[in-house]
Design goal:
By secondary structure, the protein is mainly α. The protein has helices at 2-20, 26-49, 57-66, 68-87, 92-101, 104-126. It has one domain. The protein has six helices and no strands. The protein is globular, with a radius of gyration of 17 Å.
Length: 127
C-alpha cells in the first residue's frame, strides 16, 4: 500500500510541475536534484547503520557483492552519467519535475528511519 501511495505522490508532483509550467533555471533544478540524491545517500546509509535492509533488489545485490562504499561510488558514477546524458538534454519543466519527484525517495527513507528509531526505543524500554 505504501508503494502505491508513494507512486501516486510522485505522479502527482510530476503532473503538478508539468501542468503549472514551473521551470527552474538549470542550475537551480540541478541543485535541487543533487541535494535530493545526497539526502537519499545519507538517509540510506543511516538506515543501514542502524540495522535496516536495502529494499531495492539491484542495490541490495551490489551491497552484497561489492560492498557499501563501492556501491555508493558506482551510484555516483551512474548519477553523473544520468545527469549529463539523460537529464540535461530534457526540457526545463521535465528537469524541474524530476528534481522535485526524486525528493520522495529520501522522504521515504526518513519515514523508515523514524519507524526504526521508535522500534529501537521500545526495545530499550522493554529490556
Amino acid at each position: 500500500m505504501k508503494n502505491i501511495v508513494f507512486m501516486a505522490l510522485m505522479f502527482g508532483i510530476a503532473c503538478l510541475v508539468l501542468l503549472t509550467g514551473l521551470v527552474l533555471p538549470l542550475v537551480v533544478a540541478l541543485l535541487v536534484l543533487l541535494v535530493a540524491i545526497t539526502a537519499d545517500f545519507y538517509t540510506t546509509w543511516r538506515c543501514l547503520k542502524i540495522g535496516g535492509i536495502e529494499q531495492n533488489p539491484v542495490v541490495a545485490f551490489l551491497f552484497r557483492r561489492i560492498g557499501l562504499s563501492k556501491t555508493f561510488g558506482l551510484m555516483v558514477i551512474l548519477w553523473v552519467c544520468y545527469i549529463v546524458f539523460v537529464w540535461t538534454p530534457q526540457a526545463g519543466n521535465v528537469q524541474t519535475a524530476v528534481a522535485f519527484v526524486y525528493w520522495v525517495v529520501p522522504l521515504n527513507n526518513v519515514i523508515v528511519l523514524r519507524k526504526m528509531s521508535k522500534m529501537r526505543a521500545r526495545v530499550k524500554v522493554e529490556v
